[in-house]
Amino acid sequence: MKYFGGCDVGSTYTKAVIIDETGKIVSSTTIRSRIRSEESAKSAMQNVLDEAGLKSSEELTYLIGTGYGRNKVPFADENISEISCHAMGVHVTDPTVKAVIDIGGQDVKGIAVDTDGTVKNFAMNDKCAAGTGRFFEAMARSFEMELPEFSKLSLKAKNVIPITAQCTVFAESEVISLVGEGKPMEEIAAGIQMAVAKRCFVMAKKAGAVDGIALTGGCAKNDGLKAAIEKVLKLKVIELKTDPQLMGALGAAEYARQKGLHK
Description:
Elements: E1 3-9, E2 13-20, E3 25-32, H1 37-52, E4 62-66, E5 78-79, H2 82-93, E6 99-103, E7 108-113, E8 119-125, H3 133-142, H4 147-153, H5 168-180, H6 185-206, E9 212-216, H7 223-233, E10 236-238, H8 247-260
Parallel strand pairs: 1-4, 4-5, 6-9, 9-10
Antiparallel strand pairs: 1-2, 2-3, 6-7, 7-8
Helix pairs in contact: 2-8, 3-4, 3-5, 6-7
């Protein structure tokens, strides 16, 4: 049996996946990224190699690096952009999905997926951290909550308190002021989720979303954001059967499988 690997070194988290000849996931991991991308890649790959019962990455037929630190994956046979890998990861998980919003630690991407899993079109917001994973971490800190707890808070809101600031720093100050004034925290949280959903609107249009859209990245686990996106975009958020945070690594592993099967 041949095995293939994908290592997605993100700015916040590093993910790795090993699949077999059939494309089945053998092992996967998600760890917090370290300062040095190379160390993140080594730690993540060691996790999946151990889980798969393999001694080293040399036992993999082919391995592809992707993500923010893709050039720092020392054992990769080649590197492919995270945009291509997220598209392919979603495609092998659910071939019916044609539009994706990837909300990473530092940027937001809208991706149109072609029938073979390649990228048809994409748009990217990398000029500002607002609406990214780092933004949500800052907002959760303002509420003195862990991220999973914060992501569900807005679901209890009866009203929405709009957040007007477009910048992460100013938005955090605005939120702290609103909390200090004693405004209902769930309504402030609803305003935060709605502001991010509106930022995703342009990305969804660029991705050609018509009926539904899939979310990838860690923010895809944010229940409040999913609800806000469905309301703002008037699109169904398609639930992926595989962990949405693994899509980049899975796509990289699938590209490795395609390239390495005949090696």
